[in-house]
Write a structure and sequence with these properties.
The structure is a homodimer of 109-residue chains. With 109 residues, chain A is α+β, with helices and mostly antiparallel strands. Chain A is built from 4 helices and 5 strands. In chain A, strand 2 and strand 3 form a beta hairpin.
């Protein structure tokens, strides 16, 4: 399997934008380690107004299994107790509680 | 100089979304070659509704000079005659006619 690229959009509560940025300016080392263990690479997040855009690459062999592994990590769960309340849930798409996968329309290596 | 990462947001005219996607599904080879010559790498664009997000990495030594080189390329100028009218100009930020650089708030390799 080649590299999979993800572009995701989310919407923050205006009063939580600062907190979301502060959390990501000093992310927990265990959370970063889990990201690596779950085969996510080159992960960046960008802000404009209340919109956040996340880009990352998945380099593993079983995306669903790795996401399940992340879901099951107790420290990541704790981290999400801080980050998830920053989002306006389902703001981008009715099927996506936080970040929503955008449609890729162009790629050039 | 290390790699610079860019996350950019733009807004399309609703009636031009399909055309913008079609253009980027079959980009002109000369435009891709200019992207490469201007030291932009790993370039992807994502769509949600009328919002487009672009991610790319800059691996050169002089970003302004390379962007000037791109601006001066006659085929890229022709390409932009097709892509630029797809945008609602200045929709994201009063200083950005098309794509606007978002603020990076997180990066993990």
């Amino acid at each position: 399997m080649g590299v999979l690229r993800f572009g995701q959009l989310g919407k923050l509560k205006p009063e939580k934008i600062e907190e979301y940025c502060a959390l990501h300016a000093n992310p927990w080392p265990e959370v970063l380690e889990t990201i690596k263990q779950c085969n996510m690479r080159n992960y960046s997040i960008y802000l404009h107004g209340d919109l956040v855009f996340a880009y990352f690459e998945y380099v593993g062999e079983d995306f669903d299994a790795d996401m399940q592994k992340m879901d099951n990590d107790p420290i990541t769960k704790k981290w999400w107790e801080h980050t998830h309340p920053c989002f306006i849930e389902y703001a981008i798409h009715p099927a996506s509680q936080f970040y929503h996968d955008m449609k890729p329309i162009f790629y050039y290596e």
